[in-house]
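User: Before I run my own analysis I want an independent prediction to cross-check against. Here's the chain; please return only the structure tokens and, at the end, one sentence I can use as a sanity check.
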Amino acid sequence: MGYVFDFNDAVNYDQWYDKPQNRFAADLEFRLMLDMLKPMQGDSLLDIGCGTGASLLPFLGRGLQITGIDPSQYMLDIAFKKVGHRVDLHRGFAEDLPFDDNSFNYACFITTLEFVEDHRKAIEEACRVAKDRIFIGVLNRYALKGINLRLKGIFTKSIYNRAEFFSIWELKKIIRAVLGDVPISWRTVCHFLSASGKITSGIERSRLVQRCPFGAFAGIVFAPVPRYITRPLSIKQTTNAVAG
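Assistant: Structure tokens:
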């Protein structure tokens, strides 16, 4: 089941976005997500672990049919206040999505895998319900910010005590264990511990800088190539007796 955010977690998580330096980081993360996922107008998207709705907002106004799912009713209540009926919100778990196969064009995880119990099952479910592309955004295990959050968790209570951090290489291994040797693209942002402004923003958006594997936020995109299992069919053959 993983960790389900309670009321205080939901409020604190939502308030995180009120700080200017955090809004700057979130903007970089969402720009990366949109640039890598490239959603097309008229298509459908599922945000797995949509939380308080911050990751839903960048998709609004793009002509998409948007669905969000999260296991925490407290998170969903806050999300509904932001997006209303513009997004179809559901309560559920990443490892057991209540949707039919190929229900969506795209699926995304934004700092969701850190809190699920079975990472491989969550990715398998995303591959089942999405047919075009899947984006995974995680807190980078090997970034300075990720290391700092883990160290803070030793001394103070935080939701990140409940989180499991990933590296790009670990995520690629999990994805290929599910899908085989599929093409995977990755980039990172948030390379500075605390900075904002035009110069920093320009550096962060550089494709060369985003190829550095140590940014605090890592984004991975891949196509959920379908896999088929075939079985031989028996062939019935009739023979005519030949008179001797």
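Sanity check: Helices lie at 7-16, 20-37, 73-83, 119-129, 144-155, 168-179, 198-204, 207-210.
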